[in-house]
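USER: If only I could read backbone structure tokens as easily as an amino acid sequence. It would mean a lot if you studied the pair and described how this chain folds. Here is the record:
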Amino acid sequence: MTAVMDAAVASEPRIVAGERLAGVDPQDLAGLYGTPFFLYDLDVLADRVALLRRALPPNGDLAFAVKANPSLAVLSRLARLGVGADVASAGELQAAIRAGIALERIVFTGPGKTDAELGGALRLGVRAITVESLDELDALIELAGVAHPGQGLMLRLAVDGHAESTPIIGAGSAKFGLLPEEVDEAIDRLHRSGAAFGPGSPYQLLGLHAFGASNVLDADALLDGIRSLAERAEAVSQRHGLPIQLLDGGGGLGIPYGDDQQPLDLERLRDGLATETASWVERPALARARLVLEPGRWLAGPIGAYVVRVVRVKPRGDRVICVVDGGIHQLVRPALIGQSQRVVRVGAAAVDEGRPERRVDVVGPLCTGLDVLATDVRMPEPRTGDLLCIMDTGAYGFTESMPLFLSHPQPAELVAANGRAGAARLRSEPADGLSRQLVPFR
């Protein structure tokens, strides 16, 4: 299914929003599950997996970034499609396993893996664990006794990067990865410990990981990162005699959130990846290497819609302030990034054409001026009770939220497939949270 949102994104599969949403009446869903709610179209997810796979070289693998959308229903569909997982916590690892994603398709990344999390992953035997620091490497060496023989490791390289060009997120980039001299020290420590490289060793150092930015829409920038990773891997291989079996280029594949943005050029990405990986055959250090990409947003973002109901309408001069029952406590990205997301009318409101077009600011119910979902939206004037849909919310929506602020209900997560919809996570009321709280002193 492809919704014609605008010329820039019309060619990409994405959830269809209008009188019906993913083939289902959104008013029926609102009656059953309340508003706000998230809806993910699993058919669109399958289409996007197929489209991205066509851009991969023969030695390329996909590992979905679970942080983007850890819904068990979404992960289960990805498992059936044969997609792997990039997890960054024990909880995400449990979700991936429960969804049916094979251990040999799971990579465990992240800068703050505890000893308990590392031990759990080692006992299970995942495809690879990414080493983010010398401190973490020492912990792995101490835990070598619980590892399956030949457990894969990757060394993450520190890179200069940014996330969506915002200092709010990008300021922490220094916490990721190893400096060049630390990479050499890490390999030396593994040699000295005897924990890696030899037959029957607990660990096998498979290769390197590098990832420096988020929501990248420039295919050339992504390709430059992978070329740089390959060059750095060759240099490491030459210094240490290390055959490279795995190069993890991370995620970062972007989607357009605004009408003024162009989608990622998959054809250019495909051609660039084909040329680069074909050259590895003639480069001894890389001849056996496989490439892993960890898309999250690109696969899941356009499959999702966040549906809210108009609570109040306030005319203000040449514009309308539209207060809805959902906000940045459930969809924080507009405030975090400072960028509005597309808003469309759905259900009966989508076909009521007898209203003048206005400039509309869509704001949430929170007691803060930051609670703005979109500004200067051109649409027929909203009315109390209308359903609106914030698009491209299948990634970093519910999972990135701060749902306890102001004690509103937590939205249901729904999935659609073949024109039918059902609950993946039921709505949670404030009373549910109160039932788990204690008053230890009276």
